[in-house]
Amino acid sequence: MNVMNSVTKPHERLADLLKDELADVNALIRDRMASDHAPRIPEVTAHLVEAGGKRLRPMLTLAAAKMCGYAGPYHIHLAATVEFIHTATLLHDDVVDESAKRRGRPTANLLWDNKSSVLVGDYLFARSFQLMTETGNLRVLRILSNAAATIAEGEVLQLTAAQDLTTTEAIYLQVVRGKTAALFSAATEVGGVIADRPEPEIKALFDYGDALGIAFQIVDDLLDYWGGDATGKNIGDDFRERKLTLPLIKAYAAANDEERAFWKRVIEKGDQRDGDLERALELLNTHGALEATRQEALSWAAKAKTAMQSLPQSEMRDLLIDLNDYVVARVN
Amino acid sequence: MNVMNSVTKPHERLADLLKDELADVNALIRDRMASDHAPRIPEVTAHLVEAGGKRLRPMLTLAAAKMCGYAGPYHIHLAATVEFIHTATLLHDDVVDESAKRRGRPTANLLWDNKSSVLVGDYLFARSFQLMTETGNLRVLRILSNAAATIAEGEVLQLTAAQDLTTTEAIYLQVVRGKTAALFSAATEVGGVIADRPEPEIKALFDYGDALGIAFQIVDDLLDYWGGDATGKNIGDDFRERKLTLPLIKAYAAANDEERAFWKRVIEKGDQRDGDLERALELLNTHGALEATRQEALSWAAKAKTAMQSLPQSEMRDLLIDLNDYVVARVN
């Protein structure tokens, strides 16, 4: 564990610096998740939106816009847009993964039903497009609608790659870019776009969000085999769901014949028995797959840092650099 | 059955008149349902898009744009947008309704799985927003993103109204506006908007689409109790799914105590036995609920006709009027 845990965490410092804007974003979210006709919509949405998420993605948009000197009102709309897209994705993910818990609470698909999660997710997607349209900025609309398509494509790719041991690191990276990095990079990029900054700065903001998102997801996938103690992760979820994440892909690439037979049984056939998770963890360690995964996360975090350091120094910029360090601190 | 069935149907004549544009729309749809990374996406989409739907909604957009004298390229994008929104909605509907058949073929959720239907639907929603953004017309973006929100809201409302015998005709109308009329009215309205027509004409196009969509859905709901022979409908599906459609709402409003007990058992409790559908049909007839529903459909069709007749005469306008007549001809 890192020394950063003993002081205020970077996302908490960001939240403090952005507290007025975040209050506006929360008010806009509450306003737009309302429905005159279908009270089920705000019920389901509130369950998720108010469950104590860190508002990481909307904070990225607010921080990027502010460090770019944006003085208009639309970073609030864009931050709410990003959170709505994220929330819609979570609702649909929990249906697809048949999840029972999210952020420590029962999922909407469990509390209500899959139907409500699907349809309320659709409503939030539509609301997000209404919100971004209100900015009147066509470039922002292109970036965010492209991100939405990339997210869905990544989710479908993840679905078809599940249980498939031929999944490569390149496919894994596409899945990660889709399911996580696309929204991170769009969130930071639009901050520069509405502030009308020069192209190299917008590019740097995109690169930061992209690399931060990838590092974030690799850490998440690593902690699924390495977490425990204070990380709040439940070890072995991906293993049980037979997801091909980076640690497993690396271990399978280095496996001998006997080990390949093991992975085929537990991942392809889904025949998992007592002791199999322990055996999997042992193989991941034997082949250095966890350590190699950790190095990959650190390498993406370094790219994010380099991108951000190319931008003019400011308090907000330095906080975004700290946030990036914090994302990998859990495995550093 | 109406004499119109013996000659070419209005939607076939529309398709003939718009065949070049429809070919462009189909090419654009094929192009945009592709995915470099996830072949599952075009597989699922093609199954539905190429299943021989009538392309009614995209034809409305093309026809409206042409009758308004639009000479640019974007009615093609808007028609493809409308079809993508419709297709995404069908994919999610079939998950929500747990349907096994659509257009006479097994549904995607049956052929693949619910997960694929949810995620491919999300992809098509995102694609539809990319397409409409390409028009660069912010008013069109507002209209279509509002329509998407109204559709999702209507679907949620339908979900919560199911099995609820206190559902009123006003709630039914909201559901119908959401699930069907919102996309019809957006489809015709955007045709006038991209052609930059005066506000009263745009309003008339909206009113036509709105009333046509409502008439279309009421006819569909009526045929669920009245179809059979040549309508292609499977009698009693809504009854079995305990949906509160207009015929049932009218019959329940006129029911005596003994009949109310019957409806409570079969709709609220879902305790349906042999002979219950026959009993339901008898009650719908006894109270004139089917005839009153038919009158309502005809009344909405008359509104659609009036709206369209307010616009300058043209071949396309007259075909849209014929289309409207055709929609209710199945029950006329």
From TrEMBL, chains A, B:
Keywords, sorted A to Z: Magnesium, Metal-binding, Transferase
Classification via Gene3D superfamilies: Farnesyl Diphosphate Synthase
Pfam annotation, one family: polyprenyl_synt
Names of required cofactors: Mg(2+)
Top-level taxonomic group: Bacteria
Family listed: Belongs to the FPP/GGPP synthase family.
Name of the protein this chain belongs to: Polyprenyl synthetase family protein
Originating species: Tropicibacter oceani
